[in-house]
From TrEMBL:
GO terms for molecular function: translation elongation factor activity. It comes from the Bacteria. The lineage of its organism: Bacteria, Bacillati, Actinomycetota, Actinomycetes, Kitasatosporales. The gene is efp. This is Elongation factor P. SMART domains: EFP, Elong-fact-P_C. It is found in: Cytoplasm. Residues 130-185 form the Elongation factor P C-terminal domain. Residues 68-122 form the Translation elongation factor P/YeiP central domain. Keywords: Cytoplasm, Elongation factor, Protein biosynthesis. InterPro entries: Elong-fact-P_C (IPR015365), NA-bd_OB-fold (IPR012340), Rib_uL2_dom2 (IPR014722), Transl_elong_fac_P/YeiP (IPR020599), Transl_elong_KOW-like (IPR013185), Transl_elong_P/YeiP_cen (IPR001059), Transl_elong_P/YeiP_CS (IPR013852), Transl_elongation_fac_P (IPR011768). It comes from Streptomyces zingiberis.
C-alpha cells in the first residue's frame, strides 16, 4: 500500500477490480480553495489504454509489485515467443498478444526487459532504438522526390518501415521501437 503522495512515474497500481495501471505522469495540485489532489495519467498494463484519473491527496492506493527482468529472446515456438532469463537461464513462453509490437523488432539473441506480475508476463520493454539490417528495398531512383523522399524497406525481422531513398538492401539501420521510424544508418 502507498498513498497518492508517494506516486512515481512507472509505478504500477492495482485499481478497480484488480486491474494493473502504470503511472505515466502525475501532478500534485494545491488549489487556493479546497483540498489538494493528485492528477494522473495512467496506462492499463495489459490493454495499453491510457486514462486521466484524479485522486484526493493522501488517499491510499494499492501498489502491485512488478518484477522486471532482463531476458534474451531465444526463438519462436509456434506462435509463442520463448525468452530466457539472463540470470537463472529459465525459459518462459510469452504469447504474441503480450509481446505486441515488440515482435516487429525481435531477433534471436536480442535483450529485452520482461515485466512479470505473480509469475505472469505483462509486457515486453525494448531499448528505445534497435539496429536491424535491411532485408530488401527497391533501389532509389535519382530525381524521384514525389514520394517525399522515402520508400518501403523490409527489415530482417519481416517488419516493413519507410526509409530514405539512399538506403540500400543489406545496410544496417537504427529504428525507433516506439514509433517504427528510421533513425539513421549504423556505421562501422
Amino acid at each position: 500500500m502507498a498513498t497518492t503522495n508517494d506516486l512515481k512515474n512507472g509505478m504500477v497500481l492495482k485499481l478497480e477490480g484488480g486491474q494493473l495501471w502504470s503511472v505515466v505522469e502525475f501532478q500534485h495540485v494545491k488549489p487556493g480553495k479546497g483540498p489538494a489532489f493528485v492528477r494522473t495519467k495512467l496506462k492499463n498494463v495489459l490493454s495499453g489504454k491510457t486514462v486521466d484519473k484524479t485522486f484526493n491527496a493522501g488517499v491510499k492506493v494499492e501498489t502491485a509489485v512488478v518484477d522486471r527482468r532482463g531476458m534474451q529472446f531465444s526463438y519462436k515456438d509456434g506462435s509463442d515467443f520463448v525468452f530466457m532469463d539472463s540470470e537463472t537461464f529459465d525459459q518462459i513462453y510469452i504469447t504474441p498478444e503480450t509481446v505486441g509490437d515488440a515482435a516487429n523488432y525481435l531477433l534471436e539473441g536480442f535483450e529485452a526487459v520482461v515485466a512479470m506480475y505473480e509469475g505472469n508476463p505483462l509486457y515486453i520493454e525494448l531499448p528505445a532504438a534497435v539496429e536491424l539490417t535491411i532485408e530488401y528495398t527497391e533501389p532509389g531512383v535519382q530525381g524521384d522526390r514525389s514520394t517525399g523522399g522515402s520508400k518501403p524497406a523490409k527489415l530482417e525481422t519481416g517488419y516493413e518501415i519507410g526509409v530514405p531513398l539512399f538506403i540500400t538492401t543489406g545496410e544496417k539501420i537504427k529504428v525507433d521501437t516506439r514509433s517504427g521510424e528510421y533513425l539513421g544508418r549504423v556505421t562501422g
